Every structure is written in structure tokens, then in C-alpha cells.
Amino acid sequence: xxxxxxxxxxxxxxxxxxGTLVACGGSSTQSNDAGNPQHDSGTTxxxxxxxxxxxxxxxxxxxxxxxxxxxxxxxxxxxKQDTGVDAPYSVPYDAGLASDAxxxxxxxxxxxxxxxxxxxxxxxxxxxxxxxxxxxxxxxISCLANLQAPGTAANAAHNAACATSEGSESCGSYLNLDxxxxxxILTGAGxxxxxxxxxxxxxxxxxxxxxxxxxGSCQTPPAxxxxxxxxDTCGPxxxxxxxxxxxxxxxxxxxxxxxxxxxxxLACVLTGDSGAGTCQTAGSMPNAGCDVPATPASCNGDLGxxxxxxxxxxxxxxxxxxxxxxxxxxxxRVDGVETICTAASSCLKADGGSVCVAxxxxxxxxxxVTGPQCMAPAxxxxxxxxxxxxxxxxxxGSYSCR
Length: 402
Known about the structure:
18% strand
């Protein structure tokens, strides 16, 4: 039971959040615009699920340098917000075909995954789902669709084992697409070219789905450096960034640049004018220094922090809690203060800046560029990802690709 199966990363993201996450599979991706690239989603290399399209919610947690401060989480409590993981959940899904055992394991696994998301990236949970109860119910939908897909290798026992392993998983593992063995994607019988909607239907463990389509085909997983412009995920180990499948620089000292972001808890510190740098530990507590020669790294956005860089600010070059906004409110850097969207709304560019746009309901109109975007695991089907034509938010399990 996992969220992401390879993130899509926005070139304008900076507040390092892993967004759109979908238990039992999939990530989705979208970004708030703010400066440094982040990773996903969002969603992790585990499970055998499929992605939703609401996105890799990236927020801005740091300086807007070209190095792509990834600012992702260590799971501490800095500026932590209560997003209600213990809230009651309901499943807006016709579960009539699901057995009691499947419903039970999907609920247990979804609770584990959403608790991990709350611990490691609570701003992303608020942006993508609004609260923990919604995260759980949406993740159950994805899980059931994965278990019921024709020819899938996904099974309740595997999901239960993954959920157990999540109890001791680190945020670095979760956010850097490096899951426990118990959460590895299961492989099905589908040969190359076989229609699919979930990775576990494929012998390769990878279902290549175009960004605005319901269905794809079983293919060899993309390699590092491969193009992902026509895919909704790079598979279990890689993230899609600026149209290319990449792996995070996941250790202090790893190389980073505008095309190679850092991993969880790290920020890219540029050296000179070459555009290249190294990954350094991001600030993880309020008032920690940031973006100055003695403490050059940015702040950990998964912990709800950003680096104050507005000239004349009393707390200049320190990590401070982000501000929040709901649908209709301004987001991004607002008068120098990093402002993220909550209550299941995404930050999209608008005339004069950026604004929070509430996610569309299932089966409602959506737009992958101007919004509204869908809430995972629904995907915006029929929308050319580069043209922004209107589509419809479609849930997995409501169609069959075989």
C-alpha cells in the first residue's frame, strides 16, 4: 500500500512536497510555483498502483535558486499542522465488487500510508486532500481499483505486509522513492504491449500511460535520463523532472543542479556561476539560518518551512513557518511570505500572480494547466497536458483497459 510510483516534478516547484499520492499506487503531480524544484508527491516507488493526476504538490520552502532546493522531510514537528489523519473516513466508491477482506486491508493500508504522509509531508497532505480522513478514503479507492484490475498481481497479503512495514519506514525512504522490500511493485503476466492501467498487470512492473489517457500499455520501465513528456510516471525508482526521468541526490555532498534536484531533507547549494552545486542539509527548525554564506542551505518544505529572503525583513535569512491559503487566496511568495494552498486546493498561475484553486469533484470538468485539477486518484482524462483543453476527472476502477 503506497502512494507514489514515480513522481512528476514541476520545473517551477520549490517547496519540496511530495504531492499527489495515492495509496496502492500512483502519484500524480502538480506544483505550486515558487522557486526550487522538489520531488512528489508525492508518490513512492512502492506498490503496484497507478497514478492520479492531481499532482505532485510542490511548495516553495526555500530560496528560489536555480539549484532546485528539494527541501524534503525528516518527519519532525516544525510548524506541523493537524491535518486530521484520525478523522472518520468514507469511501465515495461503489465497493460492491470488493470482498470484506479487500476492504479491510485497503482501509488498514490507507491509514498507514496517510499517517506516513502526515508525518513526512503534512503540507502536501493539506494541499492534495485537505485532511487525513479524505486522504484515507481516496487511497482506499486506488487500492480497490488496483486489487480488482484484470490480470493484476496485486493482492491483500502484499498490501498488508507493506502497511506493516510503513510503521518503521523513514521519511527519507518514503520521499526519496526508496521503499521497504515489502512495498515493492508486484509483477503480473502482461507482456510488452498489453493494455494496462496498473503496473501490477505487467510482467515488467511498468504501465506506460500517457498523461491524459485512462489506459496505457505494458512497457520496459524508463531508464534514468529517458524522456517522460508522454508518461504520467517514470516508474518505481525515478521522478519526472523537466521532461526527464531523474533520481534524487539523496546524500549530503551529492551533485545537484537546475536539472538534478536533491532528495529528502536536502537543499541544493550552488557553487560559483556554473549552475552546479552540492546537496546540503536543509533547515528543519524555525529560526534556523538559511541562504547565507555560513549556513547556505534552504529550509525543509515538507516540515512547513521556507527561507525568508525579502530584503528588510526582521527575520531575514531564517527558516519560518509557511502561511496558508484556501481556494481563491493568493499563493506562492505573497509579499515575501511563502504561502501554500490547503483544503484540497492547488496553487496555479493567474493574472498578476498565483491563486489557490479548489480541486474538482469526481466526474466534473478539469483542466491540467489552468485548473481546476482533480483530487487523486482521479485523473484529468481528455486534457492535452500542453494545451490545457478541458477534460473530466475520472476515477480508477470506473473503466477497464482490457
